[in-house]
Amino acid sequence: MLTRTQIVEIYNGSINNWNDPTFIEHNHALVLPNATIVPVARYDSSGSTEIFTRSLSSFSDAWATRYGIFSNRTGWNASVVTLFAERTSGVVDAIHRQPYRIGYVTPASADDVNIPFASVVNKRGRVTVGDKRSVQAAMDECLHGMSSRLTSNLVDCDGQQTYPIAAYSYFIVHTKQEGNCSVAAGVRLNIVIGRLIKSC
Fold first, then answer.
1. In the CATH hierarchy, which top-level class contains the domain 2-118?
2. What residue spans define the domains of the chain?
3. What is d(CA 48, CA 69) in angstroms, rounded to the nearest whole number?
4. Is the whole-model pTM more than 0.85?
5. For 75-86, what is each residue's pLDDT tens digit?
């Protein structure tokens, strides 16, 4: 289990060992190893990195000021984040291959290879798991703030049950429709909404 602050401090280098005393508060039952934490990040420019650094910026004003939100590898502190991987599958593989590594991937990607993922203490002090319920709670909270482009920020919501690192998944479908354009619009909307629900 990790707090929002601990996640920031792992990626800014303030916490660099798995037996750091700050982990004890929420992990009494675990015997944590005396081993260096190895943060993994995406090598390629990615929405995942943007969502993750948006979360870090929300968790910490100091992070927001020094690093901010970015989507490519050049934004990381090069003395802290030294291991990169292409695509989500590459990050999963990098974590799976060696112990003591940590990275950001979807729960589904972690489940595929049985990598455990951390529960996170949200801004209300509640322990949350990145599952359908906690992401749906964030979606429900931000529903009325959705833009006309079907975008909304789900990071670090205020609700009791919300997982603090959450976002929508989108894909764009090019359709060619001759005749009734309203049918094509309806098909597009159904595909996108179905993907959003399924991906949570």
1. alpha beta
2. 2-118, 170-200
3. 11
4. no
5. 999 999 999 999
